[in-house]
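Continuing the batch. This is chain 6 of the set; chains 1 through 5 are on the previous pages. Same settings as before, nothing changed between runs. Recording input and output for traceability.
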Amino acid sequence: MSKVPALAIDFKSFTSSILKTGLFLVKNVYPEKKIILFHVIEYFLTPPHYILPYFIEEKKKLEAHLLEFSQEFQRENILVEIHVLLGNFWKVLSDFLETIKPHMIVSGYQTHRIKIPTAEKMIERLKSNFLIIKEKPLEKIENILCCIDFSEVSLECLKIATFLAQNTNSKIKILNVISRIQIMDKILEKEVLEEERLQREKEWQNLLNSLDEKQLVKNLEFFIKYGEKNKEIMEIIETDYPDIVIIGKRGKIVKAGLGSLTRELLRTLEIPLLVVEKF
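Output for chain 6:
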C-alpha cells in the first residue's frame, strides 16, 4: 500500500509550519511524491437552509487558498490533491480519512486555557497517525526518540520510526521507562527492578524480531530508564535534542481514546510529536 501524508490546514498560526513540514516529508521521506491538503469547514449541527449558500461560497474561497499553497509543492514536481470538506464535522472527516487512508496527518496544535483544542479531539476520536506541529516545523530528521511500553501499538511505533530513519539515515533511540516501585527493603527493590529489566529486554528482542528484514536499520539503540515516565522522557529530550518524538496513542491500560502520558506530551512538547495509532 502506498504511503501518502495529508496536511490538515486550518489557516491559523501554524499553517506555515505545517506546509514546511509537509514539503520536507514528501521531498525526503515519502518516495511517492504525493501529498493531500485538506480543510474542514467546522459546523457540528446542520445549519438552516438559507445559510448554505454562504458555506458553498466559503468553500470556493478556501479551495482557492489551498490551490495557492499547492503551488510550492508543484514546483518540486509533487502531486497535490486538495479537498475542502463541508458537512457535519466528525462524519465528513471520518468518511474522508476512510477514503484516502493517509499514512499520517500533519496538524497544528494550539493550546487553550479553557477548551480542548480541535486537534486533540481529532487525535482522540479518529483512527490515524498524527504528526503534531507547533511553531517549529519538521525540516530535518537526524535523531528520533521513540517511546514504547510494549503495548499493542509499540510495534507500530517501531515500524514508523524505522520508516523515517531508512529514508533520512537518522539515528533512533528506543526508550522504555520502568516506573519506580515503593519497597522498603532496598535489596528486594533492586532485585525486583532487575527482574523487570530482564523481562523488558526479552520483550524488546521479541519486538525487534517482529520486523521484516527490510525494516531493520543500523542506527538503533534500545535503553531502559527507571522513574516517572514524563520526567524521564523530558530529560532525554533536553539532553539528546531529538528532531521528532514518537509515541503510541495510548498505553496498556487505556482501551480507548488518548493515554494520559501522550496527552501530557501533546500539550507541553514544542518539538514535533508523532502520535501513532494501532491499526
